Amino acid sequence: MKKNSFKILLVAGLISGSLVSCTKKLDLLPTNDVTSAQVYSTATGYKQAFAKVYGSFALTGNKGPAGDDNTKDIQGLDEGTSDYFRLLWCAQELSTDEAVIGWGDVGLPDFHNMSWSSSNVFLKGLYYRSMYQITLANDFIRQSSDANLSSRGIAGADADNIRRFKAEARFLRAYQYATLMDMFGNPPFVTETDALGSTLPKQILRKDLFTYVESELKAIDAGLADPKTNEYGRADKAAAWALLARIYLNAKVYTGTDRNTDAITYSKKVIGAGYSLISDYTKLMRADNNLNRREFILTINYDGLHTQSYGGATFMTHAPVGGSMPASEFGISGGWGGARTTKALVNLFPGGASSADKRAQFYTPGQNLDITDIGTFTDGYGITKFKDVKIDGGAPQSLDFADMDIPIFRLPEMYLTYAEAVLRGGSGGDAVTALGYVNALRTRAYGNASGNLTSITVDNILDERGRELYWEGFRRTDLIRYGKFVEDTYLWPFKGGAKNGKSVEAFRTIFPLPSSDVAANTNLKQNTGY
What we know:
Elements: H1 5-9, H2 36-39, H3 43-58, H4 84-93, E1 100-101, H5 109-113, H6 121-143, H7 146-151, H8 156-184, E2 188-189, E3 202-203, H9 206-219, H10 237-249, H11 251-255, H12 260-271, E4 296-300, H13 312-318, E5 339-340, H14 343-346, E6 362-363, E7 382-383, E8 406-410, H15 411-423, H16 431-446, H17 458-469, H18 475-481, H19 515-520
Antiparallel strand pairs: 1-5, 2-3, 4-8, 6-7
């Protein structure tokens, strides 16, 4: 078994049944014959409920074959598609220069075309998945009050552990609100003080949600484990600092005010917490990448035997494989022939697919650099970054479901956040250190100092983020921050549905709230343009 005991407890978090709108009397929690009084009657019950809050990242429900419409989870999505990271990936990557996908599922081509509507099923799925985890977190936080612990006779070390769990649940809630803030801008807002099913949630403005997320992350700092001391896959102080650094870097987008000095402060805290780069970039996304924890700050944990679904890591290892690509080299029984990249990503690397930069992990035999037809898998280079084989080349536990974990935060993001914030005028850092962090990534990528830079600009950092973080769920947010997402200042193949790319409406920097929620909740106002 590749994981620790907490990973196995995630099975207790299996999400059964369907998820429904948070605005329909907040009835997101699945109904069954087990009451909260029973679940939370013992310290063991608390840990099982706590595992479910984490489990909603990686577990989705009854599995069915990828694309099988006979097994449904969120809003009509098949089980695998309703996975959090798969939905996030579609929204963050397929709407950019980094990825295309050949499948014609209703709503999926909308990302390339940048023509999504308030009824897009993938956006609805992401929205409801985030709201579901928020609802689970709210319930756990509510049940973990000192008054509830006392009334249930839970005290001493057990109570202290549950208070730690509560701080982590608040982190997970803040993380999902940060997702909603980035994607949807102005979502409904509920906390543990809102009784389940008591009223329709009120809407929160993006800038106010930023303030809430910021305050929550700071408030829980003392209650979280010190960096690198928690169980693998659980949040600690460094995870909270990393999320603060991330939202501070994007604060101008969210609030209209730069917070680059704060981005420097918190990225420095993470960098100084004892993390370091693994030696080989090509071994980051592997079946036993839980061994990469010196670089990983927080992960979504997957296991080929215990978290079987067609989302997350399984999607990332299967969807990019097709054509002449040998499935066995990816640790899978067969590929799905869907996801590839555009030449815009390939061209970020000097020398393209043949670059000396080892981060250029492209499959080219039988593939065309230029895309004529998105539906043709051989149009567009393949991506070989994600393989469900072990670091030493050994086989995974399953050829159908991936063992690979997905990092939510890893150290290079903090290096690049620090560098960009310095170059954007933030205080508390310096250009020499910023250059050193960028060159640390490039030295690993090239295997020596041959690719190192002597100076850097803000635009250099965007390109470096593309090379370092591609397909990890960052690109849409990065392009928006740089003013290159909807604008004509940067075009890529099939941007806006045009073969050579075109600009689109400015309002598309924020996704629409699902029409079903807007119709059901009179407190919600749809985002501009939709």
